[in-house]
């Protein structure tokens, strides 16, 4: 049976005003119980019911309605679609890129160091089990500072997760593996529809719904849109939300390497004047590498043949992994930061890089994106239960209030760290060395910093704490057939 046919009705209804959120739609029935019993099935629902399958082919020049439209099917968008559908919302996720047919080993060369909270959230929605065997735990983080006078006698600071005592800091997973796991779960969810490749051409935020037109003429309407459409976010632009963007004249090269010495589940971050170079464990004697250089230098390294590239890398990694024997495909990314002025507007919530982007140092980017998604899930399920319109500005403001302090703090901290690593200004270098040596000697401070790095500023979302959120509707059993059209 399809998800909406098995819809449940929550018992106790609280007034939205308990949350400080006024009822938004005057035409809303007195209780959500009534509202949901009376609610006509959406076009997506009808189509799926008539076909007795979860997959829905969206016809051109027709209009389809769902609860939540996710624009962007990168890792943040897929995570948003899975989490919201897993909670019973009717979700459509539109992405301009085609879904990859196979588990491409190096789709974009990146891996993501996911902190424990993000791993808990992905476990809760049935995604993490597929990533486990292809990811490596991050037990120890080591910083080797070789800037300024430290070039020949670098200062090493070690952060051991055993000092915090809650298992590893997190796990390093290839983005390709994470994407496949998210897409597999999305296909399982009868109330989720992945529409790709399909490009959004126009989005309008109207009083009672959001209306999106795809380039091929299909129209989707929803109570809420989630903008997970990356740094250039068309959703953000259409809502008139400004974003501050800045760059550092750096390029990040991302790839994986095989090596002769075991990494011991230790991630090593070299702080060098041109930018950080980070080695992050993968299963076996393999590591993923993010090597940041000034733009021109990076272009020259990217053009080297494999042997020369490995020699250049070996010269910069102090033999910590022994001999480097093989390098995977290399990808490069401009390094920059982005901070949206607002994270939500009427019928739009931003998640992932449409709201914030940071240099690849300190493994914050997608972890922030997962915190966005799980916070939004909590806000939306609360609003739904209390009879509120999930796309209303007042609901979304509470999402923004919860996310903004954390995001601003992390963007500022990572920006400052990246600049401090790059600086050639001796007083700043000296201050950084002093800070690192103090940290190394003063364990309580180091432990506090490690804890701080792992949890968001403010309240940690329930899913990231390992607590369940009650779904808004009961889910249909997975059918195993595809929901991708
Ligand atoms: C080298 C490197 C290493 C990193 N390492 C880490 C790490 O260790 N830990 C960590 O937490 N983070 C890390 N990050 C950050 C992390 O990779 C990003 O935060 C994450 O990939 C961003 O995902 P996203 O889904 O927000 O954006 P994107 O991946 O940019 O996805 C946006 C999606 O929107 C779609 N889209 C755009 N416009 C349209 C349209 N008009 N219609 C339809 N679809 C559209 C695009 O097709 C795309 O699929 C790293 C980043 C880099 C560059």
Automatic annotation (TrEMBL):
GO MF annotation, one: monooxygenase activity
Pfam families, sorted: FAD_binding_3
Assigned keywords, A-Z: FAD, Flavoprotein, Monooxygenase, Oxidoreductase
Ligase is among the record's keywords: no
InterPro entries: FAD-bd (IPR002938), FAD/NAD-bd_sf (IPR036188), UbiH/COQ6 (IPR010971), UbiH/COQ6_monooxygenase (IPR051205)
Swiss-Prot/TrEMBL cofactor(s): FAD
GO biological process: ubiquinone biosynthetic process
Domain FAD-binding: 66-406
Family recorded in the similarity comment: Belongs to the UbiH/COQ6 family.
Protein name stated in the entry: UbiH/UbiF family hydroxylase
Naturally occurring in which organism (per UniProt): Ferruginivarius sediminum
């Amino acid at each position: 049976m399809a998800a909406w046919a098995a819809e449940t009705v929550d018992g106790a209804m609280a007034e939205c005003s308990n949350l400080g959120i006024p009822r938004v739609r005057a035409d809303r029935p007195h209780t959500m119980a009534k509202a949901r019993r009376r609610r006509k099935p959406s076009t997506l629902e009808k189509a799926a019911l008539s076909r007795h399958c979860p997959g829905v082919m969206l016809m051109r020049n027709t209009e389809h309605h769902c609860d939540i439209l996710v624009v962007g099917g990168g890792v943040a968008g897929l995570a948003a679609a899975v989490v919201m559908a897993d909670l019973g919302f009717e979700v459509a996720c539109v992405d301009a890129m085609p879904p990859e047919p196979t588990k491409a080993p190096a789709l974009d060369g990146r891996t993501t160091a996911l902190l424990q909270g993000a791993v808990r959230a992905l476990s809760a929605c049935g995604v993490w089990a597929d990533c486990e065997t292809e990811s490596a735990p991050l037990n120890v983080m080591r910083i080797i500072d070789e800037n300024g006078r430290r070039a020949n006698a670098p200062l090493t600071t070690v952060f051991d997760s055993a000092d915090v005592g809650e298992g590893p800091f997190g796990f390093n997973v290839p983005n390709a593996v994470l994407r496949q796991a998210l897409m597999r779960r999305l296909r399982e969810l009868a109330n989720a529809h992945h529409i790709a490749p399909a490009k959004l051409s126009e989005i309008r935020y109207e009083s009672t719904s959001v209306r999106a037109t795809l380039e091929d003429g299909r129209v989707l309407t929803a109570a809420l849109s989630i903008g997970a459409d990356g740094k250039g976010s068309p959703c953000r632009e259409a809502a008139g939300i400004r974003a501050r963007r800045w760059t550092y004249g750096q390029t990040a090269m991302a790839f994986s390497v095989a090596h002769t010495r075991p990494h011991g589940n230790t991630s090593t971050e070299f702080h060098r004047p041109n930018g950080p170079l980070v080695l992050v464990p993968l299963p076996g004697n393999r590591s993923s590498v993010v090597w940041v250089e000034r733009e021109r230098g990076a272009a020259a390294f990217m053009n080297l043949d494999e042997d020369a590239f490995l020699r250049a890398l070996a010269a910069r990694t102090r033999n910590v992994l022994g001999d480097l024997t093989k390098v995977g495909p290399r990808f490069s990314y401009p390094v920059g930061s982005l901070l949206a002025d607002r994270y939500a507007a009427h019928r739009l919530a931003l998640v992932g890089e449409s709201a914030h982007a940071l240099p690849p140092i300190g493994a914050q980017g997608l972890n922030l994106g997962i915190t966005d998604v799980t916070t939004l899930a909590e806000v939306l399920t609360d609003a739904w239960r209390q009879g509120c319109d999930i796309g209303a500005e007042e609901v979304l403001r509470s999402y923004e209030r919860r996310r903004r302090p954390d995001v601003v703090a992390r963007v500022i901290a990572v920006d400052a760290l990246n600049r401090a690593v790059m600086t050639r200004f001796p007083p700043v270098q000296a201050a950084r060395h002093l800070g690192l040596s103090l940290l190394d000697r003063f364990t309580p401070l180091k432990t506090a910093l490690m804890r701080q790095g792992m949890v968001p500023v403010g309240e940690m979302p329930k899913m990231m704490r390992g607590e369940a959120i009650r779904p808004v509707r009961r889910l249909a059993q997975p059918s195993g057939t595809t929901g991708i059209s």
